[in-house]
Design goal:
This protein has seven helices and twelve strands. With 277 residues, it is α+β, with helices and mostly antiparallel strands. Bound molecules: 2-oxoglutaric acid.
Length: 277
C-alpha cells in the first residue's frame, strides 16, 4: 500500500478503491462488447478523450470517490484535461516504454495527476503499470521516439534507463481500484503474458491555473471554480458516439495533436488512439 500521504515524495499512490468490483466488471463487459461487435469502431472510440463520446465514461470522470483523492494532490479546483484507455489483450505484445508524461503535453506547472482506474485485475502477468518511486523529482529526462508498433505510446517514446539499477514497483490493482501518478514519474508496463485482458481507463486532472503551451486545448471543470479560463470547455456527451459527440472528440484530438506531435517525424500511428501520451 502506497499512501496518498507519501505522494509528494513517491510520486504515486496505490491502490485506492473507488468503486465496487461488480461495477467495474460491468464496465469491462461494456468495453469488451464494443470491441467484439465492432473492433474497428472500438479502436477509434476507446482512444484519447473517449469521455467525450460516452456519457458513462464522462460520469466516471466526475465521480466524487475519484475527485476526493485527486483533490488531496492538486487542491479543490479541478479540471479534467483528457482521458484514454490502455488495453492489453491476453498474449498481446503491447507494452509501454519507460517514459514521463510531462514530455510532450506542454502543460505548466507540473501539478498534473493521472488517475488510472482498473476495469479488470491489473497484475504482473498481464502487464500492470510499473513506476520508479521518487523519479518525478529527477527533472525532465531526454526521450527518444521509436514508433515501435507494439508500443502503446503514440511516438513510442522512451527514456534510456537501466531498470536493473532501479527500484521498480508493480502497481497491482483489483477491478474498481485506481492508482494516481505524477506527470513526471518514470513509468511503463510490460506485455500481457497471461490469459486475461487488462483494461485501464486513465483520467488526467489539472488545477485551473495550469497553462497550455502551443495552443488552446479542452478541459472541463469537474470540481470547484475556474478563475483562469486557460482552456476551452468541451461539450459533454449527451448520447453514445453521436454526431456532435464525435465532432467534439475529434476537435479535441486535433488540438492535442498539434501540440503533442510538434517536432515529430511521424503522425499518430492510429488516429484517435493515444495520440498524445
Ligand atoms: O497503462 C499503462 O501500462 C501505461 C499507462 C500510462 O503510461 C499512463 O497512464 O500515463
Amino acid at each position: 500500500m502506497y499512501s496518498i500521504d507519501q505522494y509528494s515524495s513517491t510520486g504515486f499512490a496505490s491502490p485506492i478503491r473507488v468503486m465496487k468490483e461488480s461495477i467495474s466488471e460491468e464496465l469491462a463487459d461494456r468495453v469488451q462488447n464494443l470491441r467484439k461487435t465492432n473492433p474497428i469502431l472500438a479502436e477509434r472510440a476507446l482512444g484519447t478523450n473517449c469521455h467525450l463520446l460516452f456519457p458513462w465514461l464522462h460520469e466516471i470522470s466526475h465521480m466524487s470517490e475519484i475527485l476526493d483523492e485527486v483533490e488531496k494532490v492538486i487542491g479543490p479546483n479541478i479540471l479534467l484535461w483528457s482521458s484514454s484507455f490502455f488495453i492489453k489483450d491476453p498474449g498481446s505484445k503491447s507494452f509501454v516504454s519507460w517514459h514521463q508524461d510531462s514530455t510532450y503535453w506542454g502543460l505548466k506547472p507540473l501539478e498534473i495527476v493521472t488517475a488510472w482506474l482498473a476495469f479488470t485485475p491489473s497484475k504482473t502477468s498481464n502487464g500492470c503499470m510499473q513506476v520508479i518511486p521518487g523519479s518525478h523529482l529527477r527533472g525532465q529526462s531526454e526521450h527518444k521516439d521509436t514508433f515501435d508498433d507494439d508500443n502503446l505510446l503514440s511516438r513510442g517514446q522512451k527514456i534510456e534507463i537501466d531498470i536493473s539499477d532501479e527500484k521498480v514497483v508493480d502497481l497491482l490493482l483489483e477491478p474498481g481500484e485506481m492508482s494516481l501518478h505524477h506527470v513526471r514519474i518514470f513509468h511503463g508496463s510490460n506485455s500481457n503474458v497471461s490469459s486475461s485482458v487488462r483494461i485501464g481507463f486513465t483520467m488526467r486532472y489539472i488545477p485551473p491555473h495550469t497553462s497550455q503551451e502551443g495552443g488552446r486545448t479542452f478541459a472541463e471543470l469537474v470540481r470547484g471554480e475556474d478563475n483562469y479560463s486557460n482552456f476551452d470547455t468541451p461539450r459533454p456527451p449527451a448520447i453514445e458516439m453521436g454526431e456532435e459527440e464525435w465532432a467534439t472528440q475529434q476537435e479535441s484530438l486535433k488540438r492535442l495533436n498539434s501540440i503533442t506531435f510538434n517536432g515529430s517525424t511521424q503522425e499518430s500511428k492510429i488516429i484517435g488512439h493515444q495520440p498524445y501520451e
